[in-house]
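Worked example 4.2. Below are the chains of a multi-component assembly; read each line carefully before continuing.
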Amino acid sequence: MGIERWTLLVTGVALLLALPVFTVFFTALQPASDVWRHLVDTVLADYVLNSVTLMLGVGVGTLLIGVPTAWLTGVCEFPGRRWFEWALLLPMAIPAYIMAYTYTGLLDFAGPVQTLLRETFDWSRQDYRFPAIRSLPGATLMLALVLYPYVYLLARAAFLEQSAAVLEVSRSLGVGPWRRFLTITLPLARPALIAGMSLVQMEALADYGTVQYFGVSTFTTGIFRVWFGMNDATAAMQLAALLLLFVFTLLVCERLSRRQTRFHHTDQRTQRPPRLRLSGRWSWLATATCLIPLLCGFVIPAGQLLVWAWRTAPQMIDHRFLELAGHSLWLASGSALLILSLALLLGYGQRLRPRPLVRLAVRSAGLGYAVPGTVLAIGVMLPFAAIDRSVDSWTREWFGLSTGLLLSGTLFALLFAYSARFLPVALHSVEAGLTRIRPSMDDAARSLGSRPRAVLWRVHIPMLRSSLLTALLLVFVDVLKELPATLILRPFNFNTLAVRTYELASDERLADSASFALAIVLAGIGPVILLSRAISRVRPDHAPLS
Amino acid sequence: MSNRLQSRTLPSVCCVLLASLLAPPALADGEVNIYSARKEDLIKPLLDDFSQQTGITVNLVTGKETELLQRLQSEGINTPADLLLTSDAGRLTAARQAQVLQTIQSEALEKHIPAAYRDPDGYWYGLSVRARPILYAKDRIKPTALSTYEDLAAPRWKGKLCVRSSDSIYNQSLVAGMIAHHGEANTETWAKGLVANFARSPKGGDRDQIKAIAAGECDLTLANTYYLGGMLTSSDQAEQQAATQVAVFWPDAKTTGVHVNVSGAGVTAHAKNRDNAVKLLEFLASDQAQRWYADVNNEYPVNPAIPPSATLKAWGAFKADTLNVAKLGELNAEAIKLMDRAGWK
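Applying the procedure described above to all two chains together yields the following structure tokens:
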């Protein structure tokens, strides 16, 4: 009996969370309009090409930044290593579109950098070529800079986990450090790297703010153009469904490739190898490798925000500021807890009952991450409104009462949307943690008479502490930055820091929006530092940060 | 033991939380609920004045037009919204077509708002006028060289023009207006000529185009005047500096007139506080509120009797297009397709 209860519960919760995605598909099933003919004739090829280029570029970019930095801070010893360990996560706290605004302010033709160049060398427009930041490569760079921490986090955890034994064997066979990195360390970490990259690529596909501001037409901007401009919601949902199918195919491929290369370290308690001490030129190279993404991904944009905020904060910050910050923090922490519990439930349920049905349901609940936030919000709004309507007409008929709107326009709808969107972020982390706990643990606990729930509570959760904390803080930072779903689903008189930032920025008052953007960044920094301390603390070999 | 305790307390805590999350917005008397596509800063001060004068509480959600419209549509008869405020006429037309608005007949509204700026049947009313003239570099372009929007497609302006992306509703409306006046084929030829004159691939907002002129990247652009006004009063020295280097040219003075759009509002079909919504609408069309639009955001009052602000006066008077702004909404999808065909990114 208990067995079937778990299957039902997990499948039910997963399908509920997949409701927005199903709504998109369902809406897309309506007959196609003539907008399609027009799209195919004119811009569709451009959309697809740009989106795929962006996705691949951001994937490669995050690997190029995330993997070397993760390896250096995880396995080597060089000046500033301890400090870089957490500082490299900081770009995560900056919303991608804010990053885009700051870099445009700095690097555009009218910005200080180019103006300085022109003044110094007495150039005019025709005399020099400066790469345009507002372009497809520019957008790729912006997204890679804010998203590489996902790859860094997962890659670092994977490197730290690799047991000394494997490396010892290779060393005794005379393999040098670089070859060891390429032929052993990297292939062993492959599942983690692919998981990180697929999260990043989903985020890149769903991005709207950055590409729209840079004038790059992607699939996502196309969805909004069709929907907002041509007022054709059906065609917009069809485009979104196409995007989803594409992502689903990629995810299936990813799963298949992972299945072929599944490694379990046989023993968790092996000695970690001593850190590789870099000296001389190599140590400076390592420091530089870590410093560059930190500078470009955090120091420069945050510095620009600070300069703007310094000037505008006196006029912009008033009594509403605390209320906005309160709303943001409340929503972020509430939904982080909620999403973590859901991820734990689904992850553990999947472990208990690894059936195709359960797996499929959990996978489809994880698709929300690849949907542009606004589309997902519509996917929440439509079914909720339908529920409200039927409850209302039912109570009218039977009791002569109107219940009005029960779900639509409430914070519940908002939390639900966050859950549907950010579940995969938490689920990745929880699943990765769970696979590290050997099934024999479960069996031992069960044979001692514990029920599944008690096993979860008393065995898994304590062992998963660092994975859970990672999931919690990732979701916290993500919700803090979230804009589109908040904008469309929030109740009356309820604003957040992200909404306020957007309102000013979309009115082209970038300098005025800086105080609020900076507040988002500051609120995100605390969790990021906590996160890295927590990760460090669970490594037994690790020197305390103090 | 502790587990059993948790298994009972957890659900009840969840229920309490859920109940607090689900509390629907109250629909008491003395309220009016607004879905607004105008940004909070550009409407809240007026709403506060209204509350103070009438004692009616105003509840506000801001957002993007199409999303608010979608929300209104899906909520159906239970919608809490009484008034839909948008920043362009096209969306109001779309709202009317989606049957989420109702007609309002009000003498005060009809008196203050000219016929071109409101729906012929009273589904919605324009509240402020936004003009989109040509802006030019003072030091490089003689205003006598400029004449009409059509002229911007002439080969002599090759490489001189910075224009925002065709994703911008302002450009979509402008092209819709051109289609209404000149027909689709002529407009498409014009759009192709315009694209050929671009100094750079379209990017950024209206302010970015003005900055690009100031920096010498191009000489001409199309921009809504309130962005120029906003830059002139900006806290950013560089923005102020840039804004002083461009001037306004009012095109089409001898022909169809300058392209204008309105921000406006309509009472929702299922408004629970209809009378309050009408009161608010009338307040927004009143002299006091009309002056505020001009003074604070450099928009033009819809009410011709209200004198424009000093900043607006400095840019000179102009002849506005008399095309009913409802037409812009009807032709919006056509305009986008046309811009796609013309290669206007």
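Take a moment to check your reading of the output against the notes. Chain A is about 75% helix and 0% strand. Chain A touches chain B through 75 residues (CB under 8 Å).
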